Amino acid sequence: MADQPPAPAAPDASDDSLANVGLAFGLVCAAGASTMIGAGIAFLVKSTNHMFMAGALGLSAGVMLYVSFVEIFTTKAIDGFIEAGYPVNEAYQYGTLSFFGGMFITWILDLLCHGLIHLQAWFEEQIRERRAAKKAAALAG
Questions:
Q1: Which of 74, 73, 91 is nearest to 82 (CA)?
Q2: Which of 26, 34, 51, 53 lies closest to 42 in space, CA to CA?
Q3: Domain of life, per the record (predicted)?
């Protein structure tokens, strides 16, 4: 039994990883409560202004996207370039280029998808017109 490694020590209160647990838990609870209150208001109020609700939904989606993108941008991309050995200035440059490059690629893919949808609708319209023309020719002829 003397050959066993010692048990890991319990983290103390001064450990940085545990210092803000209460604050983090409180913020998560506040965010959940805010979501519940907002959903309750949306479903309980009968005379809903649809323009206001659309604007509020757009604003909340924008805030969530901003928070997510900033988290990805700062902690993942830039820290990844720094850990790969790039200087801090270059890491910010490459992280910024990667971020906006990804947005550009997403925009191009969005345009491509919309173009394919419109192309499909055009082909379907051409098929309907040809069938109608054949049917009219058969009835006339």
A1: 91
A2: 53
A3: Eukaryota
